[in-house]
Amino acid sequence: MAASFGGEWTHQKLEILNRYLDAYTTALKDRPFHLIYFDAFAGGVSNPVDSAYASEDYGELRELRAGSPLIALKVKDKPFDKLVFVEKDATRCASLWLLRESYPDRDIEIRNEDANSALPGFCETLGSNDRAVVFLDPFATQVSWSTVEILARTQKIDCWILFPLMAISRMMPTGREPPHALAAHLDRVFGGREYWESLYNDSPQQLSLLSPEPSQQRPRGSDQIAVRYRERLETVFARVAPTSRTFRNSRNSPLFELLFAASNPAGARVAVRIADYILTNW
Ligand SMILES: C[S@@+](CC[C@H](N)C(=O)[O-])C[C@H]1O[C@@H](n2cnc3c(N)ncnc32)[C@H](O)[C@@H]1O
Asked: Is 111 in the pocket of ligand 1 (CB under 6 A)?
């Protein structure tokens, strides 16, 4: 996995998205497709200075940058035919309404809604000539597996997923299995207990003490969690890019894993080749 460090990672995340959107629309510009960009965690027009990232873990983020909605709007060679921006926060949503006023000729839908409730309805509306890129860019563990699975089933969507490694790793103690409430949360993210619970093994020390209930442990760090989530994506998408990008904070702790998955069986090979090239080189 390629890795990005420190405050540059939000910039890199958006640069990777930008390059993919450009390449995707150019690759499909002579095809009879209606191209849609769906930003499920759109944020505001710019990344806010005091965003939820501005904590001890994410503290290096203080800059104001153009966000993903503006980047998608500015794709030039073949602009998207339609853009859908979903944002749960009313204030950020208001800045998207203003942005839309600056682009009166574009087909822009803005929804002040939860991404997990907006996406299934969107997937149902897709017609045979529709093709979409969905960007799942949450702060934490908001993306439910059931939502990801619905995207994959459309066979019309390419998906960038920012998987919250640090948040998930903290929910999975290394010396014992997670308590009930966290286990239920992990079930929702992975779409089933077996997908995360198999990272735990019997502790050899406990076995030697002949404990009737050997305690469980998992390897330290989050590498295996990222691998497991990629494997999970491979169970539902046509292809998943072999390369992903680990974004780390200035203390070198993994924050997020950026993954790419394509659902259209005919287009997935090319889509993954483009995404993999970008993930490897930028
Ligand atoms: C990491 S920021 C998005 C940044 C944006 N994609 C960009 O590149 O500029 C995540 C956004 O998701 C919003 N959000 C959080 N939970 C959400 C949910 N369940 N559904 C939709 N939006 C949500 C937050 O308010 C926040 O603006």
From this structure: no
